[in-house]
Amino acid sequence: MNILRGQKVDITKNTAITDIVTVLEWTTINKEMEIDGAAFLLDEGGLCKNDESFIFYGQPYSIDKSVKHFSSTNGQNEIHLSLDKVPNTIQKIALTLTIHEGESKGQSFSTVSSARLIVKDRLSGRILFSFTFGEELQQETAIVVGEIYRHNGEWKLNPVGSGFNGGLPSLCENFGLDVINEPIAPVPAPVEKKEVVKPLIVTLRKKETISIKKTTKVVATLEWKSNKDLDLYCFYVTKDGTEGKVYYKNLGSSTSLPFITLDGDAKNSGKETITVHNPSQLNYVLFAAYSAVSNGVGSFKAMKAKAVVDNQMGQKITSPLFEENKYAYWVAIAKIDFTDTHEMKVSHVETYSESGTERSPLMYKNGAFEMNVGPEEFK
After folding, report:
1. Is 345 helix (H, G, I), strand (E, B) or coil?
2. Is residue 32 assigned to a domain?
3. How many distinct structural domains can be found in the chain?
4. Spatial distance between the Cα atoms of 110 and 112, rounded to a whole number of angstroms
5. Does 334 lie in the same domain as 224?
6. CA 143 → CA 98, 134, 164, 272, 308, distances in Å?
7. Does 182 reside within a domain?
8. Which range (156-170, 210-224, 288-302) has the least confidence?
């Protein structure tokens, strides 16, 4: 079964499967580039409890042997998981790829093609799921390929395909591990220290604003829990004052203005993802959700809709909804101000359209936005 980014699927539910093999595959035109696979064993907070929770070529087995790493060969890496043996303290297993010394060698995943995650039943060898990704990757040197996580006593797969800058050190810091780099020989001159971004996971209060590190790539998701069809819209203002929106009829571009892409229309419950590929070319973005007329009346809050902003360096901000509003087709959820050189401001803006109107929001050059004044949207 081929799956898409954000399409969460069951692994163990209603099956006898407990042992799986995850295969990470890639093809690159740079034959000298070394790519390594790894697994991070994460607790409820999404962090590694200790160094033994990092499974890679230098530490190929977890303490209980429930997770085993097999060395990368010919563009492939295998990690075996005995899910019935994973301790209850482990709630999620992140599968990753990193380029060895990619930052210092000027190598990145822009030269990698045909990246794929395959999940197989270890006993039968049958392929359960296949996830292809990576076309949108550019200067990233690390990737969270997918997450295997617990849900209601069963295990599920979340295909992620999200890139990081900073290679393995950034990944380790993102998952709560300290990275110590010891020099092999004395350094003759002072070397500028690489900035370390402190991991941060925050849920905004009503109308709260928080500043986080402005990075080279930002990923925002609209997440909800219902069988209704919601759509994620990203209204933007570029550095040169251009106004526009990325949505299901205009999926955007990663290589030209507005440097924003939408991963597609989910058509059902779950998640939609917006990627801001070059924040330095933008002043403001506004994330809004639209509920199709076919959904009927209902509350965005009842759907547990929320926007999650991730700067890909361990800082993740969630903007939830607090108000009951049963008659709005639109809600503006979160806004990002990119105008500062080093930081970006993420704001909770929860604002609803008037009852019964389908006119969309509009965003203006100064970053302000207004509901009920844009064009009507029809599915």
Report:
1. strand
2. yes
3. 2
4. 6
5. yes
6. 6, 9, 6, 19, 18
7. no
8. 288-302
H helix runs in the chain, sequence order = 102-105, 167-174
Report the number of secondary-structure helices (H) and strands (E) in the chain: 2, 27
95 φ/ψ angles, rounded to the nearest 5 degrees: -100, 130
Count the alpha carbons within 13 Å of 23 in the hemisphere toward its beta carbon: 19
Structure-token match 């000027």, residue found: 106
- List the structure tokens of 338: 């990119």
Return the CATH number at 318. 2.60.60.30
Rounded to 5 degrees, φ, ψ at 6 are 85, -5
Q: How many Å apart are CA 150 and CA 156, to the nearest integer?
A: 6
Asked if residue 186 belongs to a domain, the reply is no
- pLDDT over 90 at 18, yes or no: yes
Give burial (CB, 10 Å; 0-12/13-18/19+) of 8.
middle
Residue 358's CB is within 10 A of a number of other CB atoms, namely 17
**Residue 193 DSSP one-character state:** P
Tokens of 325: 């509003």
Looking at every residue in the chain, the average pLDDT score rounds to: 88
The encoded tokens of residue 257 equal 């203005």
Nearest Cα to Cα of residue 350 among 373, 328, 366, 367: 328
Where b means 16+ CB within 10 Å and e means fewer, 296-306 reads eeebbbebebb
Distance CA 197, CA 310 (A): 13
- Residue from 361, 306, 304, 283 nearest 329 by CA: 361
Per-residue model confidence as pLDDT tens digits over 318-329: 999 999 888 899
Please give the span between the terminal C-alpha atoms of the chain, in angstroms, as a whole number. 28
Give tens-digit pLDDT for 124-144. Answer: 999 999 999 877 777 889 999
